[in-house]
Amino acid sequence: MRLTITIFLLSLLMLQCKTAQQPVVDEQKTAITDTIQKDSLQVELLTPRDTAGQDSTPQKLTSRQLQLLKIEEKISCFQSLQKEKEINLKYPGKLLKKGDSGIAIIPIKRKLQLLGLLKQDSLTIRFDSTMEVAVKKFQRMHNIRTDGIPGRNTFRFLSWPISKYINTLENYRENMSKKVDSLPSTRIEINIPEYSLRIYDNDSLLKQFKVIVGKYKTQTPILNSEVDYLVFNPCWTVPHKIAIKNMLPRMKRDTNYLDDRNMFITQNGTRVNHKAIDFSSCSKDNFPYKIYQNASPGNALGKVKFMFDNPYSVYLHDTPSQYLFKRDFRAFSNGCIRVENALELAQLMLNTDQNKAIIKNKLAKGYPVKVYLKEPVSIIIKYETVRYNEQLDLMQFFYDCYGLDK
């Protein structure tokens, strides 16, 4: 009897263990799992499989695609900042620098914190090294001198409300969406508000140059063209407007004005003796002359100019006034574009092993010499008050010097 009971208990225990090993089936979970498996199968069928003969390397974004991607990211970032209290900033009337202290430092730090350039625990009245680094980041963000000192030009941008950044980005996005996706692989790009020129070869950036563009009243035009040739030792033909507006009053006061600047005058294509002209009788409506400046170290066009077809009679050129390139905002010309280190740009465009020797030889002649390029180089003059700088991995904002970014 005891043996029978023992066998029964052992059988019952084995049955319980076997039952415990069986998984508990949840009908709802099973249905979900089946759905996921079916969806996964469908996605797998819709997704093309890589084959041995196919290149699975991700395609590189075009410049336009990259710009649009970064614009969307930045718009989203600034939109999230709109919830924060706006910070109104005005130039305090004196330069602040590292080591200074004062209440005027607080709003600057708060604005830098809002833009994510300064840590939240740095809100003191002392201008420390951490703040200096943040100011330099802000200055780089706006393409101005990165000296870490918030002067008038820095405050020009510190006073921007967040809505200004968003509007600028949205305008840029709208303009960028209308542009073609491809550009000539070898090209010169000039961005007027950035005061910058970039030269590319096979879509690789060779060099970036500072430029000076037209004043507000004599704006550099937006255009696309091709640089055909260069002129070394250029002779400057003074535009009529400059002659009557800027030079005529000086010629009336100083009889040596033209001689001191190595200039001469023609009338109906014939050179005339300017000493025999009574300039006091001339006016803006009565000036039948053309003024030229001979090739010389002081020539307004410097040592080289770059010629491209356009209806505005503008071109790129060197300049003896190199000090102007130290300015943050460089709208000083009468429409043409002055290039810093223009001879270096000429070397890149000639693109030969002997380019330095060629340039030296042409300059030594002392008179204007044309040098045609083997292939014309595309030139694009544009107006963009914001752009993503791939080299700095930074979205940069520029002053709207012509007021076109409405």
What does this structure look like?
It contains 11 helices and 15 strands. With 406 residues, the protein is an alpha+beta fold. It is globular. 23% of the residues are buried. The N terminus is likely disordered.
Structure at a glance:
The protein is an alpha+beta fold and 406 residues long.
Give the key terms.
disordered N terminus; 8-stranded mixed β-barrel; 406 residues; single chain
Topology:
Blueprint: H1 2-21, H2 27-46, H3 63-81, H4 105-114, H5 129-141, H6 152-158, H7 162-177, E1 187-191, E2 196-201, E3 204-214, E4 223-232, E5 236-237, H8 240-253, H9 257-260, E6 263-267, E7 270-272, E8 290-293, E9 304-308, E10 316-317, E11 331-333, E12 337-339, H10 342-350, H11 355-365, E13 369-382, E14 386-389, E15 394-397
Parallel strand pairs: 1-13, 3-11, 10-12
Antiparallel strand pairs: 1-2, 2-3, 3-12, 4-9, 4-13, 5-8, 6-7, 6-8, 9-10, 14-15
Instruction: Outline the biggest β-sheet.
Output: 8 strands, mixed, barrel
Radius of gyration: 34 Å
Specify the structural class.
Answer: alpha+beta
Task: Tell me, briefly, the overall form.
Answer: globular
Q: What value does the average pLDDT take?
A: 85
Percent strand equals 15-25%
Helix amount: 25-40%
Strand arrangement within the widest β-sheet reads: 1-2-3-12-10-9-4-13
Q: Find the count of extended strands (DSSP E, 2+ residues).
A: 15
Distance between the termini: 103 Å
Return the string of H and E elements. HHHHHHHEEEEEHHEEEEEEEHHEEE
Low-confidence stretches: 1-53
Number of helices: 11
